[in-house]
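[Discussion] Sanity-checking designs against the backbone

I'm trying to build intuition for which residues belong where. Below is a structure token string of 266 positions. I'd appreciate it if someone posts a full sequence so I can compare it with mine line by line.
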């Protein structure tokens, strides 16, 4: 059977000049060693998720809190205390939540992988048939799928990886560290929270509020640009998406902070 044709131009997204240059360089000097380092590189880049998630929450949640408090008081010390308490509690909560959720997810996945290994040991002939069916579902002819299945099952590691990844949709060799991920989440939240909170340490409430919003918007814009580069999105669109969410959060917090005192006063 002839190899499948490459995707048509209609199915392939338009390449940016940077991506086209990257692919051209790969064509000129393909390095097999880089193939085996790709999984580790992706795992490292994926930790950006923790930094991005933690930083965004560290900017938006404290900004909403300090803006709300600033809308209801002229005392900058009250704003700082409220913001610092939220930043510390939020960092602990984010870090602990990332660790516990990641641990729970890993335990569920490991249980599913153990079940699959038990099936491979107890009913190997059924598992071989399943591999063939999985490749048939991806477009191979039945006879070719059976040949592939027979070859894969000559290697235990290849057999395990194929069943876990194709049948369960999981990785038999997960990358990353729960502890590092949780620390990245908590620390990024704490550091980011200093941006909206910082101006209240040195200025009165009104000018501090303006500077807090401006600084937060600038940092949100930078985060949006970074996100866009990593996701290969249009940078301006990515940045504006993040900025709009952030400013909406600040506006909501400030509105509540000014409205609630009036309602209580009535």
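Best answer:
Here's mine. Compare freely.
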């Amino acid at each position: 059977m002839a190899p499948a044709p490459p995707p048509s131009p209609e199915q392939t997204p338009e390449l940016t000049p940077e991506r086209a240059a990257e692919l051209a360089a790969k064509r000129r000097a393909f390095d097999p060693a880089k193939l085996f380092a790709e999984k580790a590189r992706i795992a490292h880049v994926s930790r950006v998720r923790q930094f991005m998630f933690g930083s965004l929450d560290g900017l938006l949640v404290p900004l909403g809190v300090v803006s709300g408090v600033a809308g209801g008081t002229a005392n900058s010390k009250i704003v700082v205390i409220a913001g610092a308490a939220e930043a510390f509690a939020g960092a602990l909560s984010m870090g602990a939540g990332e660790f516990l959720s990641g641990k729970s997810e890993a335990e569920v996945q490991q249980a599913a992988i153990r079940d699959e290994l038990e099936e491979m040991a107890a009913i190997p002939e059924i598992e071989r048939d399943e591999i063939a069916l999985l490749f048939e579902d991806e477009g191979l002819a039945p006879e070719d799928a059976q040949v592939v299945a027979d070859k894969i099952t000559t290697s235990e590691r290849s057999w395990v990886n194929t069943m876990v990844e194709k049948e369960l949709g999981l990785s038999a060799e997960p990358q990353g560290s729960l502890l590092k991920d949780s620390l990245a989440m908590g620390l990024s939240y704490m550091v980011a929270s200093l941006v909206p909170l910082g101006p209240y340490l040195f200025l009165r409430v009104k000018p501090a509020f303006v500077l807090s919003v401006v600084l937060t918007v600038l940092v949100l814009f930078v985060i949006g640009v970074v996100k866009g580069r990593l996701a290969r999105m249009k940078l301006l669109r990515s940045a504006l998406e993040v900025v709009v969410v952030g400013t909406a959060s600040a506006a909501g917090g400030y509105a509540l902070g000014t409205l609630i005192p009036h309602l209580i006063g009535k």
